[in-house]
Write a structure and sequence with these properties.
By secondary structure, the protein is of the alpha/beta class. The protein has 2 domains: 8-229, Spore Coat Polysaccharide Biosynthesis Protein SpsA, Chain A, CATH 3.90.550.10; 250-339, no CATH class. The chain has 12 helices and 11 strands. The strands form 2 sheets. Strands 3, 4, 5, 6, 7, 8, 9, 10 and 11 form a 9-stranded mixed sheet that branches. Strands 1-2 form a two-stranded antiparallel ribbon.
Amino acid sequence: MTFTDEGGQTAGDRVSTVWPGVSVVMPVLNEERHLEAAIRRVLDQDYPGELEVVLAVGPSSDRTHEIAQALAAADPRIRVVDNPAARTPAALNLGIAAARHEIIARVDGHGELTDGYIRRAVELLDETGAANVGGLMDAQGSTPFEEAVAVAYTTRLGLGGSAFHLAASPAAEAETVFLGVFRKEALVAVGGFDESMHRAQDWELNYRLRTSGHKIWFSPELRVTYRPRSTLRALVKQMYETGRWRRELVRRHPETATVRYLAPPLTLVGVLVGSIGGVIGVACNSRPLRAGFLAPGGYLALIISGSLITTRPMSAAARLRLPLVLTATHLAWGAGFLLGS
């Protein structure tokens, strides 16, 4: 691939840029609120090569399908394919199968690409030889609760253990990245996304790419604005499912079990056992058992102090909600890991 602008000079000769076509694949389900903005950010990329958007739309309970069809009717670069399974990996595979171009960019229906994202991602594929490149998950909320969830995503006390959650992370090879821009031939060679993995399918795919000899590359130059869950119920459901499918990933690939992924279930066990022991200790007047309250008490102190000292800018209303958000994130994730089947 040649990335010299049209009219540029290579060895004294004028050349035209040869930019590969890019197919942006978007799994979409119940995205009435964010879909139009997400697509607009793709089409506003000013990418110099051919660009298409493939929307794999599941059976939504809101106006998502109508919005997708209207957008496709208004712009020939947008196409809609049905995803009757309503699962993300199935949607991604349907979109990849329908894609016309050699580069596949995954974008979610509630994510917004920053300027120049696709162009720089294609350059990085060429510069690094990677099969997949990705960048920062820049969580941004518009309400105090969403703002608190966004902070939880980007702090080490929350979910900020992966490079793609932290703005200070340097460009480097990575185990996985957020979303990703792929070489289609590499995706096809490893069999695409595993449709039995309803969540954690990105990590699992990148694992197979890496074990097949491909490189995964993270760059903080690539940034996607992510819109977090807007209610406590939605957050708990998301984290429970995330923990549940992380357990499935560990079951299939035991070598992927790390302290970071085992911390939420261990925290939940410690809080429950300590609380039960403390209650029994009070009932039996047993000082050693009452000491069990130190576990939930210590955890609560950690959450509150961490919420107070985190340096990410946020409103006072969001900071008040952060302890609840962190607790819900940890315990729901841990419950999913322990109880999910």
